[in-house]
Amino acid sequence: MTEADYDVIGIGNAIVDILVHAEDDFLASEGLAKGAMTLVDADASNALYAKVGPAVECSGGSAANTIAGLASLGARCAFTGKVRDDQLGGVFGHDIRAIGVDFTTPAANAGPSTATCLILVTPDAQRTMLTYLGACVALSNDDIDSETIAASQVTYLEGYLWDPPAAQEAFLAAATAAHAAGRKVALSLSDPFCVGRHRDGFRDLVDNHVDILFANEEEITSLFEVDDFDAALQAARGRCDVAALTRGAKGSVVVAGDEVHVVDAEAVSRVVDTTGAGDAYAAGFLYEFTRHDDLARAARTGGIAAAEVISHMGARPDQPLGDLVRQRLGDAAD
Known about the structure:
Blueprint: E1 6-11, E2 15-21, H1 24-29, E3 37-39, H2 42-49, E4 56-60, H3 62-73, E5 77-80, H4 87-98, E6 102-103, E7 115-121, E8 127-132, H5 146-150, E9 152-158, H6 165-180, E10 184-188, H7 192-197, H8 199-208, E11 212-216, H9 217-223, H10 229-236, E12 242-246, E13 252-256, E14 259-263, H11 277-289, H12 295-309, H13 321-329
Parallel strand pairs: 1-5, 1-9, 2-7, 3-8, 5-6, 9-10, 10-11, 11-12
Antiparallel strand pairs: 2-4, 7-8, 12-13, 13-14
Helix pairs in contact: 3-11, 3-13, 9-10, 11-12, 12-13
């Protein structure tokens, strides 16, 4: 296997996040399922946006957030995702390139506008997301750069994108290109909503195309249709090389064959916004995975990255994660 030009390439939805503080009563009055992600059309997104208070806009998308976290750690990264050639598409492209990530996916010059995600953050730091996929659904095989994938140690796939048939084909093409080059494929299940919609497809991905699986407790129990985490853990064992399963305040559990690591969550003085916690965990984990044969260290670094992200509004780091990992681990994050 040749030396990689990139540590990780992410493939996912290119979205601009709109973050807003909201009360539980507002969610109830609008009939919104707290803590879930709901797909909406442009009209519904605009109508709800008109009802909320001041907002903070920033580039987002699950895989893009993971790639941003990796870049903050010092990794070499690329990203594939579809935007429209509009103002928000320009914002997304500028933001991801500004942090040192290669982003060369051609913008669509027709069709839906760049995707947005209205994120309502309640006082308990839970996030409720209303996602307008817009131009994201146009991602296809034509956007998959097999040479870049072959030059990346890991191809990271975002479960949120597994909806349009063209995107599913793109995922499989990317996984095939990665494995043909002797590289690894990682998948994030992203959300219980996604698992419920695509359980059979996700199971096939995990069994036949994925080397590293990321999921939280609710997602993994839904995937295998079991009632508790321990049963889900046993069901996940042996389905792929590594399963990294997060449990919020309980930390994470990593299983790889007979190897099991239970890692405590990092201390956080105040949880402000849980948006992007799983994305940040994946960033820390993949950073270490591409450098060290130490899954416990990978889980610890994932926890450090997640703790930083949930301590403030927004799904991307506010401080350089590489510096933070060096402080916490007491050695060089390289």
